[in-house]
Amino acid sequence: MECECGRKAVIETRYNRKKLCDRCFVEMYEKRVWRTIRYNSLLEKSDRILVGVSGGKDSLAVLHFLAQNHFDVTAITLDEGIAGYREKTLDAVEDYCQQNSIPLIVVPFKEAYGSTVDEAVRKGEHPCSVCGVFRRDLLNSKASELGFTKVATGHNLDDEVQAMLMNLLRSELPRLARCAPGFEEVDGFVPRVKPLRECPERENIAYAFLNKLPYSDAECPYSKSGFRAAVRDALNGIEEKHPGSKQALLKNFDELTTILRKEYAGKPFRTCARCGGPCAGDTCKACEFREKLGEPISLLG
Amino acid sequence: MRVSVESRDFSTTVNLPNGAKLADVYRSLNLKEETYLASVDGTLMTGDDPLAEGSKVKLLPVVSGG
Ligand code: SF4
Ligand SMILES: [Zn+2]
Ligand SMILES: [Zn+2]
User: Fold this and answer.
1) Using alpha carbons only, what angle is made at residue A57 by residues B23 and A184, rounded to the nearest 5 degrees?
2) Is the model's pTM score more than 0.80?
3) Which of A53, A58, A80 to mutate to test the pocket of ligand 1 (most atoms within 8 A of CB)?
4) Which of A9, A142, A176, A287 could make an S-S bridge to A1, C-beta 3.0–4.6 Å?
5) With helix as H, strand as E and coil as C, how does A65-101 read?
6) Own/partner pairs, A8-11, CB within 8 angstroms, 24+ separation
7) What is the largest CA-CA distance in chain B?
8) In 3D, which of A174, A195, A179, A258 has the Cα closest to residue A49?
9) pLDDT tens column, A25-64
10) Signed CA dihedral, A215, A219, A223, A228: sign only
11) Percent with pLDDT over 70 in chain A
12) Cα separation, A268 vs A270, whole angstroms
């Protein structure tokens, strides 16, 4: 099978009926990421960017793209304390950062919150709720503590449409509004950007493979459970029969969420009474979990 | 011809008729092509690429969690 340029194709992209060679694929991929960055004014060369890196293909792909394009990047890996999972992916991150002289910060949940995700599960919590709250809180607090101007993550097209559909199905419109493209300037939050939000998951693997990124394909043992897996499988089923559906969904969601964001904008954030971080109520979700999980409040921040 | 297949969760050997293509590996293992990317002897390949005796197929699972 051949690429338009005559070289051997390495990947088929069904949504646009193309077969691409390694060079044409990487060119198409990088053009798309640049378009996402420019169109939404996500990043400036003057930004100091903290990149959340799990060691999977998506986060290593975004780190690689930004580093190759001479953005000022520092990697941060959060160790959730999930046995048999994070050890493997941490090795991948350390290898990559060492080879490419990228500074790396590793922060264990246990150190920051006094509890790992595994321990929270043993106390009856849902792993992904605790994990998500701690992760968001820690990325923001580390970034602001260390003077970064942006936080970048490797969220891909699949992650984005899954999250939006989940918010819609759960009637969480304010949360859906926060999925709008670009970023919001909210006091107390370092803006978060997702340069790969238009890249299908499958293409992040191809990009990681072709660039020989040492990513780990270890799967979190908790990822099979829950609502997200159901939404993911449904979307994959639709995409299989109707290629291009995910892109269409993102495009339409982006239009909708941009309107929604205006509707929900201006809700001022308050300051958490415990940690001083930004929050919607009196205390932030991270402090609520920290207290609930029965550990003393650490000296964060 | 015999082809070895390796993935995150399994590794196996499949017997295929001569002239078989990568897509035949998915078919013989009852896997969906969309769910994987595949490298053959270290190079990314697409479904209609031919395989040879002793080819080493590595299936990279697309869906991940975490
Ligand atoms: S799947 Fe695992 S890594 Fe992802 S949010 Fe849930 S617990 Fe955290
Ligand atoms: Zn080409
Ligand atoms: Zn707090």
Assistant:
1) 125
2) yes
3) A80
4) A9
5) HHHHCCCEEEEEEEECCCCCCHHHHHHHHHHHHHHCC
6) A9/B46, A10/A206, A10/A210, A10/B43, A10/B44, A10/B45, A10/B46, A11/A203, A11/A206, A11/B37, A11/B44, A11/B46
7) 40
8) A195
9) 999 999 999 999 999 999 999 999 999 999 999 999 999 9
10) positive
11) 95
12) 7
Residues contacting B64, CB < 8 A, separation 6+: A56, A57, A58, A201, A217, A219, A223
Domain that holds residue B52: 2-61
| Mean pLDDT to the nearest integer, A263-267 | 75
Q: Please give the ipTM for the structure prediction.
A: 0.92
Identify whether B53 is part of a domain: yes
Q: What is the CATH number of the domain that holds B22?
A: 3.10.20.30
The residue with greater pLDDT, A128 or A203, is: A203
B66 pLDDT band, cuts 50/70/90, is very low
Q: Is B48 on the interface with A (CB under 8 A)?
A: yes
Q: In this structure, is residue B66 part of a structural domain?
A: no
CATH of domain A43-268: 3.40.50.620
Q: Is residue B16 part of a domain?
A: yes
pLDDT band at A266 (very low <50, low <70, confident <90, very high): low
The domain segmentation of chain A, as residue ranges, is: 43-268
* Cα–Cα distances in angstroms (integers) from residue A47 to residues A33, A66, B34, in the given order: 17, 11, 37
For chain B, the domain total comes to 1
**Tens digit of each residue's pLDDT (9 = 90 or more) over B14-59:** 999 999 999 999 999 999 888 899 999 999 999 999 999 999 999 9
Q: Mean pLDDT score of chain A, rounded to an integer? A: 91
Which phi and psi angles does A122 have, rounded to 5°?
Answer: -65, -25
User: Bridge-partner residues for A271, per DSSP?
Assistant: A278
Q: Distance from B24 to chain A by nearest Cα, in Å?
A: 16
* Angstrom distance (rounded) from CA A289 to CA A138: 13
**Residue B8 domain flag:** yes
pLDDT band at A301 (very low <50, low <70, confident <90, very high): very low
Query: Where do we find the tokens 């295929």?
Result: B16
Which residues in chain A touch residue B46, judged by CB atoms under 8 angstroms apart? 1, 9-12, 19
Rounded CA gap, A272 and A289, in Å?
13
Are A220 and B48 inside 8 Å of each other by CB? no
